[in-house]
């Protein structure tokens, strides 16, 4: 791809995407924004297939994708390059509206978990929940749930717990709240990520590992594509606009992203975007890998090590 072309950026079309929208609307971000309502796991596949250049998604999904067994001998297709959200994510734990047998998180042990995709945040957080609840066998060979039901979209996850195809699923709190308020699904509990929740990744064609040439004519060997640096500049401007114009943010979220105005205002109180989006703290990646290994999502000694997951621009 020639360096004059705009980036193809994958994102989740939820309230968190507001600064990205502002970066394009107000600050000239030259990019095609491609929504992935099914989440981070789908973007991992798209990056590796060359369908997108950059992804903005959940920390645990990106790290699980690079840390799984079999990735070590490959470049993994992408690298962590930036931090999009500094605050943790609140995952709501939901079941069907008419499931009197499920009254607490304890009732979910050995049940059927609905996930968007294998390797997605909804999948990874199931293991983090199981670890927190003490459901994982010491040898970690026994699965904490009887079945993992892959359902791709939030809509299908809601339908599955009401149809009895799955017992529960996990999704972001404010995205789920509308459906609690309507009585479509029922909240069982919640769990927060033990790490900052959203990261930015770029294809290894744009941020090649040391010693490999970049994929565009505008970059020297081993250097990041100039469009990635421009993305950070425009994103930083979008974040500043978000922070300085909360009423505009509320209007956009409540009119374009299917949230109520009240929920949009409540969410604004809980989220913090970084002043500088470029860069990833090594300790955040190492801590996430450590927890995912403890939870049995990743295996110590297999897959990519934490320090190899981050590209230095």
From TrEMBL:
Residues of the Ca3427-like PBP domain: 91-191
Originating organism: Purpureocillium takamizusanense
Keyword Signal in record: yes
Domain of life of the organism encoding this protein: Eukaryota
Signal sequence range: none
Lineage, opening ranks: Eukaryota, Fungi, Dikarya, Ascomycota, Pezizomycotina
Statement: the UniProt record of this protein carries the keyword Signal: yes
Keywords, sorted A to Z: Signal
Localization in the cell: Periplasm
Family: Belongs to the bacterial solute-binding protein SsuA/TauA family.
Cellular component, GO, one term: periplasmic space
Protein name as it appears in the record: Ca3427-like PBP 2 domain-containing protein
